[in-house]
């Protein structure tokens, strides 16, 4: 494989490496380099649902680049394929990261916070602290917090949805519209 060393700009992390696989066996080397907790950026194909103005829902497959915090690593020696499972840590046009729950907490709208225990064991201390603050905020404002075990199917499903969700006390404006309003008012 071709390896290119990229120094990471963040003080809290180590360094980055770009791997360009040249043959199938290179995936085996990648498997041996990756560790749980590493950040991995890779190209993948995802099924994306779209809704038209008439309300009809369609889906298409798109190629996108995801950045995930590695949770499990598996190597299929027959197909020479690497399978990595993890939580998305960087958004793109197809994958959003639930800042929505944090905005709802700021609006005191959360009645019940649903959170995966994995977020409290995250490798990145800043991420762990972020979710501890979110839990404290919800409890301080009279909300209930339900922590889901990642070893149970319900916790596993919640982890696939970023690991955090909320049941609201009252409806709030669509947060994506609110973000667009904020950005358009800055431009004036």
UniProtKB/TrEMBL annotation:
Name of the protein described by the UniProt record: Protein pelota homolog
Domain of life per record: Eukaryota
GO BP annotations, alphabetical order: nonfunctional rRNA decay; nuclear-transcribed mRNA catabolic process, no-go decay; nuclear-transcribed mRNA catabolic process, non-stop decay; ribosome disassembly; RNA surveillance
Chief place of localization: cytoplasm
This protein's UniProt keywords: Cytoplasm, Metal-binding
Xref: InterPro entries: eRF1_Pelota-like_N, Pelota/DOM34_N, Pelota_N, Ribosomal_eL30-like_sf, TF_pelota
One GO cellular component term noted in the UniProt record for this chain: cytoplasm
